[in-house]
Design goal:
CATH topology: TIM Barrel
Bound molecules: ligand V47, iron/sulfur cluster
Low-confidence stretches: none
CATH class: Alpha Beta
Order of helices and strands: HHHEEHEHEHHEHHEHEHEHHEHHEEH
Structural class: alpha/beta
Strand order of the largest sheet: 9-1-10-11
Length: 383
Amino acid sequence: MIPTGNLSRELKDISDKIIAGARITDEDALLLFEKGSPGFVGSLANLLRERKHGDITYFNRNFHIEPTNVCVFSCNFCSYSRLYAHRDEGWELSLDQMMNIVKSYDGKPVTEVHIVGGVHPKMNLEFFAELLKKIKAHRPELHIKGFTAVELDYMFRKAKMSMEDGMKYLKEAGLDSLPGGGAEVFDTEIRQQICADKVDADGWLHIHETAHRLGMHSNATLLYGHIEKYHHRIDHMRRLRELQDKTGGFNTFIPLKFRNKDNDMSNVPEVSVAEDMKMYAVSRIYLDNFPHIKAYWPMLGRQNAQLTLSFGVNDIDGTIDDTTKIYSMAGSEEQNPSMSTAELVTLIKQAKRKPVERGTLYNVIRDYSEIDTKEIETNPLLN
Ligand code: V47
Ligand code: SF4
């Protein structure tokens, strides 16, 4: 039951539409952003989330590899990258160093490695295909979610390969799915101001469509809360909704909150938590064909990520094990992002949700809702 007593006629109409299970328009979404309170929009998003997933909240056990932070691009919001000329200030991992990271998880029940980094001019398609093959040879069942459309676009162009051939090549080498990064904001003018030189919206969408056509799944992101307006967020989500109608290949939408430390947009203030909650809630409502909405806790902070579980979110990403620097360098409160399974389960249970460990493709690994925290903490297979 959504309380609609004091609502304007127009918000009441949108609320009726959502409750009836109809798709909302761009104008409806704009109204929700502009006029809806977080509580109102959140309760509608929560209704949809519970219709789709009940109380189930997914998490996974994963780690990241960031091969390098050296990057040919210079996105203004990025606190992480270093230009090739300043590569002595950054890192460049060799194949052996990356394999040592993979091997450090031998015997540990992780199910996914997430590989994303800067766009290094010398780390090419062959180099990464070699990495994928080595990982698969060492641990065949580990799901490899790797490379943003930005990295892929650069790799394929440099190798003079079509998107389709390049993607097939990496898939054969062991790539299982694509993460959602590099999407930022699709609008051309905003893109021009925050990340002028990398792949554009059509290129990003084309790469994901190509992956979907080859039977791979992928995620999508939106970098929100900086210079973009609400209508830019909606335009971004519309293009994603349209592609999802065509392919059905997206698993998850991940709104990424702009963090402003040590980058060329540090003068732009970060948005409020109320704004964050509304962003998650509108995503759930607008993207009616996306099964999952994820709060990436290393970026949002675990407290706020917990709150999103009442605003439409049904996935909170993974254990991470302090293997990513993108957000700590941009000023997230999570300076060494790592959560044990017991901590993730507790965080989800405190929000009165049902914690379920998933694989990358949302296959259920274990329902933790009836398992006692003490048991999780003391059993190495569970924690
Ligand atoms: O594309 C960079 C973002 C993204 C900042 O698919 C920033 O499961 C905020 O996409 N403030 C890369 N955001 C990370 C990413 C991701 C992360 C976790 C899970 C998945 C997934 C994907 O990080 C970039 C950019 O949008 N980013 N700098 C910043 N200062
Ligand atoms: Fe490079 Fe990615 Fe940073 Fe842009 S966001 S500068 S592409 S590492």
